[in-house]
Automatic annotation (TrEMBL):
<dbReference type="InterPro" id="IPR036661">
    <property type="entry name" value="Luciferase-like_sf"/>
</dbReference>
<dbReference type="InterPro" id="IPR050766">
    <property type="entry name" value="Bact_Lucif_Oxidored"/>
</dbReference>
<feature type="domain" description="Luciferase-like">
    <location>
        <begin position="10"/>
        <end position="305"/>
    </location>
</feature>
<protein>
    <submittedName>
        <fullName>LLM class flavin-dependent oxidoreductase</fullName>
    </submittedName>
</protein>
<dbReference type="InterPro" id="IPR019949">
    <property type="entry name" value="CmoO-like"/>
</dbReference>
<comment type="similarity">
    <text>To bacterial alkanal monooxygenase alpha and beta chains.</text>
</comment>
<dbReference type="InterPro" id="IPR011251">
    <property type="entry name" value="Luciferase-like_dom"/>
</dbReference>
<dbReference type="Pfam" id="PF00296">
    <property type="entry name" value="Bac_luciferase"/>
</dbReference>
Length: 335
């Protein structure tokens, strides 16, 4: 009998129209506590910059907050955009988190800047081709294995006596898959926004996997976007907030997440409608039964060990309801 599918949560801390940023951040705690109680495996926070509809710009702060308000669920980054940060800074931040919450923290790392070109300039973000160097530097700090003549060999990482939590590489095209395997890390694929199939990336990852102390066996996570409601019709109605948000963002309009009523009343350009037509094929929208069957099929066809779910609807209460319905549909064991 196959083992039950592990389910996790990816929280972008969406900011809905009619609410404030403090409201959105307070909601991260409510969702963390709900996910913990429902039996979700882990809760990750994304890093996005310069987006009016997203409050998740500092994953390490949200991780610390969520861990302090929960007991069992793993908390981590999905992910830290490493090119925006000095590798020593990330090594120190996540060693600190691991020391505060031993055995409950994940460090997921992404190549993307998490924002547009203006945000990259403001962050002094490195170029994509530098990611491997940033990653090697962060790991050298953690493992204390710089060559003796390297200037950084004289820099002790604080806090000492602690190692980084388990590392995960995030990908949306398969480019990071082989590297994740060779470095003995976990691998998470962003199928919630990428049209590239995940199965070949997971296969390449497993083929090249070399066990590490933190990751003795290969581990794969499939990211999916889900809106669940009691009926297919209600879920489709609620999901239009996300659909219009994607269309507006892609065509350069920044605003907070609008209500489904306002979204349905919005007159879209042909370009915006084509964005929705293209992107919505990736989203899983429907009743608990519809969502359960679709998630299970995607996990099986891709070879994922775990599925991490991001949900974007205008109502925070209905967002929490969506995660609750999914947990019940899969028979997660409440804690």
């Amino acid at each position: 009998m196959p083992k039950p599918l592990a389910l996790s949560i990816l929280d972008l801390a969406p900011i809905a129209e009619g609410t404030s940023t403090p409201d959105a951040l307070a909601e991260t705690i409510k969702l963390a506590q709900l996910g913990d109680a429902l039996g979700y495996t882990r809760l990750w926070y994304a890093e996005h910059h310069g987006m009016a509809s997203i409050a998740s710009s500092s994953p390490e702060i949200l991780i610390s907050s969520a861990a302090a308000h929960t007991k069992n669920i793993r908390v981590g980054s999905g992910g830290v955009m490493l090119l925006n940060h000095a590798p020593l800074r990330i090594a120190e931040a996540f060693r600190t988190l691991e020391a505060l919450h031993p055995g409950r923290v994940d460090l997921g790392l992404g190549r993307a800047p998490g924002g547009d070109g203006y945000a990259m300039r403001a962050l002094r973000s490195g170029g994509g081709e530098e990611f491997s160097a940033y990653l090697a530097e962060m790991m050298a700090f953690d493992e204390d294995n710089f060559p003796s003549d390297h200037p950084f060999s004289r820099v002790p990482v604080a806090p000492g006596g602690i190692r980084l939590p388990p590392l995960w590489l995030l990908g949306s095209s398969g480019a990071s898959a082989q590297a994740a395997g060779q470095l003995g890390m976990g691998y998470a694929f962003a199928a919630h926004f990428s049209h590239t199939p995940a199965a070949p990336a997971f296969e390449a990852y497993r083929y090249g996997f070399k066990p590490s102390e933190a990751m003795p066996e290969p581990r794969t996570i499939l990211g999916v976007s889900v809106v669940c409601a009691p009926t297919d019709e209600e879920a489709q109605y609620l999901s239009y907030s996300q659909a219009v948000q994607w269309a507006l963002f892609t065509t350069g309009e920044q605003r907070r997440l609008m209500s489904p009523e306002d979204a349905h009343a919005r007159v879209l350009t042909s370009q915006q409608q084509s964005v929705i037509d293209h992107q919505s094929t990736l989203w899983i929208v429907g009743s608990p039964e519809t969502v359960r069957d679709t998630i299970a099929e995607k996990a099986e066809s891709s070879g994922a060990d775990e599925v991490i779910i991001t949900t974007t609807v205008h109502s925070y209460e209905l967002r929490r309801r969506s995660y609750k319905l999914i947990a019940e549909a899969f028979g997660l064991v409440p804690r």
